[in-house]
Design goal:
142 residues, alpha+beta, GMP Synthetase, Chain A, domain 3, 2 domains, 3-stranded mixed beta sheet, 6 strands
């Protein structure tokens, strides 16, 4: 088993601010209500979920392609997390994965199949399966 940690510290009331850090120290960022809802500088949980999802998904897709003997040149992925703030409480309602890959000898259709498998099986996608909608757009790079 592997355990990884993330930490958050908040100072003050809801108009305050805080910091989010990772165990490795690679991420150390300010966050606030302004950064989350008003476009101010800093990070927010949804942005970090998107980054974690894109990273996990891309690594998993690369892994299954490599295990099948495919030569991966590059894979790029964006995970866009949609937060609906119209209800009583904010809620993540959609995640859109967009991935592009340059893989030798893999057709667009084959890449789509690999991409779908990665969406279903990557650990972070599995955790996020409670999100009502998760879409995938996959394309090969020329």
């Amino acid at each position: 088993m592997i355990n990884q940690r993330g930490n958050a510290v908040w100072n003050g009331d809801i108009k305050g601010s805080g910091s989010i850090t990772t165990q490795s120290g690679t991420v150390s960022a300010p966050y606030s209500v302004g950064a989350r809802f008003e476009g101010q500088k800093g990070t927010n949980p949804e942005e970090l979920i998107g980054a974690a999802h894109a990273g996990c998904y891309t690594m998993f897709l690369t892994s299954i392609l490599t295990k099948d003997g495919k030569q991966v040149k590059q894979i790029r992925t964006e995970s866009k997390v949609t937060l609906d703030t119209s209800g009583e409480v904010p809620k993540i309602v959609k995640i859109s994965l967009t991935t592009e890959g340059e893989v030798e000898g893999v057709s667009a259709e084959e890449f789509q199949q690999y991409a779908q498998t990665a969406k279903e099986k990557c650990p972070v996608s599995q955790v996020l399966s409670a999100v009502p909608e998760m879409e995938l757009v996959a394309a090969t790079l020329k």
